[in-house]
Design goal:
GO molecular function, one term: metal ion binding
Strand content: 5-15%
Shape: elongated
Bound molecules: guanosine-5'-diphosphate-alpha-D-mannose, manganese (II) ion
Largest sheet: 7 strands, mixed
Function: Transfers mannose from GDP-mannose to dolichol monophosphate to form dolichol phosphate mannose (Dol-P-Man) which is the mannosyl donor in pathways leading to N-glycosylation, glycosyl phosphatidylinositol membrane anchoring, and O-mannosylation of proteins.
Main location: membrane
Helix content: 40-55%
Protein name: Dolichol-phosphate mannosyltransferase
Number of helices: 14
Distance between the termini: 33 Å
Number of strands: 9
Order of helices and strands: EHEHEHEHEEHHEHHEEHHHHHH
InterPro entries: DPM1-like, Glyco_trans_2-like, GtrA_DPMS_TM, Nucleotide-diphossugar_trans
């Protein structure tokens, strides 16, 4: 699916161009949509009067959301409603909306008031100041989610880490790649073929668009007032499928795209800290498990030695490797949050370490020490990259 360029007189369908086209994808939002249109219109009538349009794209909702939406068009002249009966899906709904849009800036917002409308003005000014893409993010200062279950938080973070691993050149550029609330300059995606797979249209925009400058605005993802989320396991499967498609078609496998240069200096410091951790691990293992000292069982000693080494590494990394980042977040709650994330990432790194060690030792190089070195190298790159993006958010 492609978005057309704007001609001087307006769009390819021949009408005057305007500043913002905001697409609202809906599926069973009958009880929300009236409020959404009213609040968005009020806000945009104030910010950019007469220079915006709202485009509701409804997938033939069984609760007839499209009917309520169509009835609103008399009251709100800048509202368009598209009722799709042949296609379904969040991403394709957004793209279809953008295809009929007249705006120089294309935006998307959910139709259930979970995305606070007041952020729109901050997104608009970020675009004004030159950003190609302005993303409302839950993971920057001022961002957050209201009462999300631990499972949903874990899944969301897990999806983010998976994305960072499979598609660093794309996922590494925004703190909230899952966001469904953003604005993009039409020129950044005009003429580009966007694949309407899955739930995450933002991946397509960053992965395929000509996006050089990205701005992020923190927002708190609110609780739904009516209806329920349509996110199911299928969306998560779609998401992985989407990452792999993007990786293959954009060749961003592991290759750090030109916009995200690999911080070698920081990586070297991280590696040195890791070495000190190996030294701490070995020393504690000796003190706890050697027959001449406490002679504790090996596994218990290793777990304790590993955890003490992780604490050692965190303190050095926080005070040296990432000092420039952590210096302005010294409150205890920030440090504790960073430590917990660092710990979880490193424990996952430990699991990866053991898996790679066994894989290499049993199938590639039958020398346990060389296999262990390779495993430590893989785990160190994992620990560095994911901590860079998740714990210190560089
Ligand atoms: N047209 C259309 N077709 N709209 C859909 C479909 C669909 O198949 N599925 C969902 N929608 C609409 C919903 O009506 C809602 O307006 C919006 O897309 C988001 O759907 P939810 O089911 O409410 O998703 P969520 O709240 O769990 O997550 C949303 O916010 C996250 C954070 O920004 C989604 O936008 C996620 O993609 C996003 O990561
Ligand atoms: Mn929602």
């Amino acid at each position: 699916l492609q978005i057309s360029e704007l001609t001087p007189s307006g769009t390819s369908i021949g009408n005057k161009s305007i500043h913002l086209s905001l697409v609202i994808p809906t599926y069973k939002e009958r009880d929300n949509i009236k409020n959404v249109v009213r609040i968005l219109s009020q806000l945009l009538d104030e910010a950019i009067p007469g220079n915006y349009e709202l485009i509701i794209v409804d997938d033939d909702s069984p609760d007839r959301t499209w009917e309520v939406a169509q009835s609103l068009m008399e009251v709100y002249p800048q509202l368009q409603v598209m009722r799709r009966q042949q296609e379904r899906g969040l991403s394709s709904a957004v793209i279809r909306g953008w295809q009929v849009a007249r705006g120089r800036v294309l935006g998307v917002i959910d139709g259930d008031l979970q995305h606070p409308p007041e952020i729109l003005t901050q997104l608009l000014s970020a675009i004004e100041q030159g950003a190609d893409l302005a993303v409302a993010s839950r993971h920057v200062e001022g961002g957050g989610v209201s009462s999300w279950s631990v499972v949903r938080r874990f899944l969301s973070r897990g999806a983010q880490v998976l994305g960072l691993t499979i598609l660093p050149g794309v996922l590494g550029r925004v703190s909230d790649p899952m966001s469904g609330y953003f604005m993009v300059r039409r020129s950044a995606i005009a003429g580009v073929t966007l694949n309407p797979v899955g739930y995450k249209i933002l991946l397509e925009v960053i992965g395929r668009g000509k996006v050089s400058e990205i701005a992020e605005v923190g927002y708190v993802f609110c609780e739904r007032k009516q209806g329920e989320s349509k996110v199911t396991w299928k969306q998560y499967v779609d998401y992985i499928h989407h990452l792999l498609r993007l990786r293959i078609s954009t060749g961003r496998l592991g290759k750090i795209s030109q916009k995200v240069d690999f911080p070698i200096g920081r990586f070297l410091r991280f590696g040195l800290v890791g070495l000190s951790g190996v030294f701490v691990d070995m020393t504690v293992l000796y003190l706890l498990s050697d027959p001449t000292t406490l002679a504790w069982p090996l596994t218990r000693s290793k777990i304790l030695a590993g955890e003490i080494a992780i604490c050692n590494n965190f303190l050095w990394n926080d005070a040296w490797t990432f000092a420039d980042v952590s210096v302005n977040q010294q409150e205890w709650r920030h440090r504790l949050k960073r430590f917990l994330k660092f710990n979880i990432v490193c424990l996952a790194g430990l699991v990866l370490n053991v898996l790679v060690l066994n894989l290499v030792f049993n199938f590639l190089i039958p020398n346990r020490y060389i296999a262990n070195l390779i495993a430590i190298a893989v785990a160190t790159i994992w620990n560095f990259w994911v901590n860079l993006k998740l714990s210190w958010r560089v």
